[in-house]
Every structure is written in structure tokens, then in C-alpha cells.
């Protein structure tokens, strides 16, 4: 059993550390998108029969790769951000990055429930800006529709970034497991809960043909 895990915008692969611990003795590939330094070193290659787990933008990034998976788990993720959120919100973040990247990310982390996630010198501002472009332009709905594998969505009812109505609109034909709270950082706030649902999902997958 192999898992590939991708973090969301404004974070690094360390967001998965406690989830990986609770997953137990499994093979894991962590992908780091380069937004913030200080996390574990990431890789961009993984076995074809992996189970993909994406947090927030990380799920969109995974879908954009056009790869096949044994299963897909969205952790507060989406297949198209701009389809549900006004472009003005992302544009405001881009302006904030230009004015004061440190203060902008501190405010973002606070809103997510992960205040003080990293220091200002850890930020890769140009890569963060590129990630915001992904949010503004990428639409992976066709890629999600073409996936021929089971999917699971994990969500929090108090998520300020991907609220319940957005989650239900995106994953209306997919099983959704809800946490009553967790902000936008379920992997940090409830790693054991995330790992339990991921493992239950993984063990229920049909064997590869």
C-alpha cells in the first residue's frame, strides 16, 4: 500500500507528519510544492497504483497531473477553486503578498487554524504567487470525471476556506466524512481522525486487476 500526499497553498509537506505517524507501516511519498521551506524533502514520482491524498490546493494539483490512482482522498480539497470562490479573494491575497508577504501568510494561517505555521523568511513569495495563479485558472473537473477509482472526501464543518456548501457541491456524488471542527487544517488538528478514515478507505479498495 503506497500513499502520495500533497499539501495545500501556504504550507509545506510537514503538515502531514502526524497523519503519516498514525498511518503506521505503509509506504509514503510526500510531495512538496515549494511554498514554504522547513518541511521534509519532497519527491515528484510515485508508483502508479498509489492512493492519492491531497489537502486543499494539493488535491487540485494531483488532479492536474493527469495520473491514474488506486484511490483518491480529498482532505478539504477541490477540483476547481475559481468555480466556487470569487476571483477577488485570490486577487486580494496576491496584492497582500506583494505588500507584505509575512503578514499576509500569518493572517492566512490564523484563519485556517494554524497560527504561526512558519517564519517570514521561510516563504518563497514567487512560488506562493504562482500557486495563487493555479487557484485562479486551473479547472480539474474533467480530470476528476475521468478518474476510474474510488474517492473519499474529508471535510470540516467550520472550514473557512472550503465551507460545507462548497464541499457538498464538489463532492455530491462522493462519500464525505465530516469533522465538526478542524478549521482548514484537519491534518494538523485531527491527524488520527484523518489517518483512520484514510486507512478504512484504503483497506476497502478492490484489488488491482
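Q: What amino acid sequence fits the structure above?
A:
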Amino acid at each position: 500500500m503506497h500513499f502520495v500526499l500533497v499539501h495545500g497553498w501556504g504550507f509545506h509537506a510537514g503538515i502531514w507528519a502526524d497523519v503519516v505517524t498514525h498511518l503506521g507501516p505503509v509506504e509514503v511519498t510526500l510531495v512538496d510544492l515549494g511554498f514554504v521551506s522547513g518541511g521534509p524533502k519532497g519527491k515528484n514520482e510515485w508508483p502508479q497504483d498509489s492512493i492519492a491524498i491531497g489537502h486543499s490546493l494539493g488535491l487540485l494539483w494531483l488532479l492536474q497531473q493527469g495520473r491514474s490512482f488506486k484511490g483518491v482522498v480529498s482532505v478539504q480539497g477541490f477540483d476547481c477553486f475559481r468555480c466556487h470562490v470569487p476571483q477577488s479573494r485570490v486577487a486580494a491575497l496576491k496584492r497582500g503578498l506583494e505588500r507584505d508577504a509575512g503578514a499576509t501568510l500569518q493572517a492566512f494561517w490564523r484563519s485556517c487554524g494554524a497560527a504561526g505555521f512558519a517564519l517570514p523568511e521561510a516563504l518563497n513569495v514567487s512560488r506562493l504567487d504562482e500557486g495563487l495563479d493555479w487557484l485562479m485558472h486551473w479547472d480539474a473537473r474533467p480530470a476528476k470525471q475521468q478518474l476510474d477509482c474510488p474517492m473519499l472526501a474529508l471535510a470540516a464543518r467550520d472550514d473557512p476556506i472550503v465551507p460545507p456548501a462548497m464541499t457538498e457541491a464538489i463532492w455530491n456524488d462522493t462519500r464525505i466524512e465530516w469533522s465538526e471542527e478542524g478549521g482548514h487544517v484537519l491534518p494538523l488538528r485531527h491527524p488520527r481522525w484523518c489517518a483512520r478514515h484514510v486507512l478504512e478507505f484504503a483497506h476497502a479498495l478492490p484489488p488491482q486487476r
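Q: And what stands out in the fold?
A: The chain has eight helices and six strands.
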